[in-house]
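ok so for the tutorial part 2 we go from a plain amino acid sequence to predicted structure tokens. step 1 is just haveing the sequence, like this:
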Amino acid sequence: MSKEELSQLSDEELLEAAKANKPSPMIDAFFIGFLAGIIVYSIAANAWGFFTLIPLYLIYLFLKKPKQYEALKKELKERNLQ
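step 2 — the prediction. this is what the tokens look like for a chain of 82 residues:
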């Protein structure tokens, strides 16, 4: 969500989004490691292709999640909802 989208949400919707988007670092780290293992295996098996790009995209999503949560926390703090 962009900052403009966050500013358009109501207070209740913003609190719900904060609950739904809360990062869990242990689970995220496990999945990033698992996906990195898939990439290493596919490179070792000379199977570089479209299916190697899918784990790369998923890793990007896992790394982007804390940044979105920080923007959400900032908006909550601006509205004094925290």
